Each structure stands twice: as structure tokens, then as C-alpha cells.
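ok trying this again, last paste got cut off
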Amino acid sequence: MSTHIGTALNFDGRALLNGERVQAADGQVFDCVSPVDGRILTQVARCSQADVDVAVAAGRRAFDDRRWCGMSPAQRKRTMIRFADLVQQHGDELALLETLDMGKPVKYARSVDVNSAANCIRWYGEAIDKVYDEVAPTPSTALALITREPVGVVGVIVPWNYPMIMAAWKIAPALAAGNSVVLKPSEKSPLTALRLGDLALEAGIPAGVLNVVTGFGPEAGSPLALHMDVDCIAFTGSTRVGKQIHVMAGQSNLKRAWTELGGKSPNIVFADCPDLDRAVEASIGSIFFNQGESCNAPSRLFVEESIKDRFIEKALALMPAYAPANPTLPDTVMGALVDQIQMNTVLRYIESGRSEGAKLIAGGEQALTETGGCYVHPTIFDGVKSSMTIAREEIFGPVLAVMSFNDVADVVREANSSIYGLQAGVWTRDLNKAHGVARALRAGTVHVNQYDEDDITVPFGGFKQSGVGRDKSLHAFDKYTECKTTWIRIDSPI
């Protein structure tokens, strides 16, 4: 394996409970296998109910004695900024851990994932002493104060596709607001979450405030979602599991449940697209980025019939640039899928596209079989119908379904026919059309004449079965704070 980043790696797979790295209470472990070449990187603590109980109890003690939430916002800000600085300082290490753990190209792990995680932590640290409470416009006989208070102990369950970014999106606002956090990373990509926990301690976040429990969903995730002393659960992952999270929240203590879930995002290219080359590059780049393992990937491409052939021709010309390669190499653009299970899932979806009558025009096969890794050639289907499985279900892999259209109302109806509503794209030079279609699309974010441009200042989340609540921006504080009214009677106004 060639790394091309000179850094020492910490493969410590022990959980982080109450400020200490520890094995699971029962000593159980599981292998952390790299999808790059199938080698075992380390063994990771296989936590269960007992370990979750320890983590939650540590978080509750830290919250109740106010070792963190009792600090002033300015004090928490300084600590959060140190945390962000440490993430940047350890960026090479974190990037390589991410690549070896889940297969993404190291160039993107460093330039996108590390930088985005550090920026998120820094931004919420900077924001917390600038969030003001309110005074209600009551009669002169009363003073009504409206204040935000941390909710308490927050459980966080994040997926394997963007382990650092997804963790940062949740733990940063939760910590900045003064909560304690129990973070449960995916068993498929636990290593950077554990290192984030180490760096938080080094930055000065007190022991017990951020705990990291590793393990499998039924054994560690479910106990966290069901825990009677967890006040809030924040989850990113599949819609199937997200539904279970909401059920478990209701079955237990009716904890607040915030879920960012699946997507099958439509990307609509009209004939009057202002720059067809740009539309092609963005459409192809966004669906194949991170090996297609993105909830917001524009996996349903609608192209107006009159320009579809030109669009396809330009798209096929770009395909050689996305040939899968070892993700530890500095120039690799497409790496490995996260594991054998996900690779086989993607290959089954490709076979379903063939069997249901879609036209395979690129890819469609496993790649680099000799490496022992989990690689799939980027794949494009043309002639897809909205009724086909590859147009309805989230594949979470490098598979693009292309459909044509001639009528605006028809394409909007087809775009909205999904159970999901995370993101969408519209390409047109007609300002009225852009606004009208954007308003008509049922999605949390609609991109116009670009796709996937992003900033921490804007909220991220979806409509319909793409989830509940928003990550990023100041809106994220709504998930991790309680809104309290304090009504003060004034008997003798002057």
C-alpha cells in the first residue's frame, strides 16, 4: 500500500469513555478492514449496552456538575477553536485514516473532509458567543425572557461515508451549546471519530463531555437511541434506520430525534442551460464524487430531449478521468466503496437496471479485482424509467440514471415522485423558469446552475423521508437547545 503522506498513524481502536481510552466492558472486538486492499487495520472495541451506560453516565455527570455548560460562551469558544486548530494540525493523519478506513481518495479526505470538519468546529465555536436571547414585547407589568439552554446529553450516530464531516456537523453545535455528547460512529469507519475524541480532550474539552462508543447498530446504536437518560438523538444514515430511531425515541423517554436520511436527488438540465459543459462536469462530478456514496448525490438526471445526445456524448468523454484507483495515491479521483457488502449491493442494483430494460452505456462492473479491494467502475444508464428500481431506490454508489423530458410540468412531477426530498438541481438561463421550478421542487436544497456548492452558513436537510431537522448554520442550534421562557411579574411599574 502506498500512502504518499508522511505521517504516523494511530490505529487505537479502543472506545473513549469519560476521558479514557478503554476496551469494551466484555472485551469484545471487531476487525477494522480497509476497503483499499482488504487488509485488517486494527481491532476496534465492540461496545454494547454496558459501555453505552458508562458513556451516558459520564456525560450526565459532566452536564450536571456544569464543568462544560457552566463555562461562559466565550470560554467554550476558545476551547472549540483550539479543537479546530488541532484537527487541522493533525490533518494528514486524519485524512489517511479516513482513506484507509472507508476508501475515499486521500486528496479529498485532506482538502474536503479535514478542512470541512475543522471549519465546522471553528464556526460553531465562533458563533456561540454571538447568539443572543430575547426579551418578549410584554405589557409593562411583566418582563418575559426567552433563553436557550443546552438540552443535556446528546446521542449522535453518524454514517460511514463522511465520518469526520458528519460527526462535526453534529458534535460542534451540540458542544458549543454546552451539551454533553455520546458519539457512535459507524462500525465501518470508526477511526477518525476516535481521534476527534482524543483531540477534543487535548483542546481542553473536559473528560466526560465527549464520549465515543464504537460498535454495531443493534449493540451500541440502539441502546443509545433507547437510553432513558439521553435527552436528544441526532442521526445521519438510511431512511430505514432513521425510522427505527424515531420509533425508539418514542418507545423510551420521547427524546428529541433529529434525522438526516436518504436521498434520490433529481438534477434537471433544460435545453437553455447557460453552459452545457459546466452542467455535464458538475453532474458527473457530483454523482461520482466519494464513489457515489453521498446522500445528496444527483443520481436521477433529467435532460431535455433536444440536448440529451450531446449531453451524453460529453459525459462519456469524461469517464476515463473517473477510473477507480488506489485512493492513497495523490492523483486518484475515485477510490474504493466502503466494504464488500456495499460493493455487492451496488452491483446488484446495476444488474437490476440491466434486467429492467435500462441501457447500460458506461461501467457496470467490478474494478481492480486483483487488489482485494472494493472497486466498481462508474456507471451510467440511459433510457431509464421512473418506475425502475435504479430510479426509485437509493443505491449509494457510482450509478447514474439518465431520463429525458420535453415538458416542464412533467419533469417537475417526475422529480417530485420520489419518497425522498433532500436536494435537487436546475440548469436554465431563464430566471422565471429557475425560480418557478425551484419553488415547485420538494427538496431541502435546490441548486441552480451548479450542483453541490456548499457553505457552513446554510442549513442542510430534507423534505419527506429525507429526514427531520437541519444540520449546519445557526439553525442547528435549534436541535440541541431548549427554548425557555422566564416570566417576571412587575407589580409597581414606575
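PB: full thing came through this time. Residues 1-6 have pLDDT under 50 and may be disordered.
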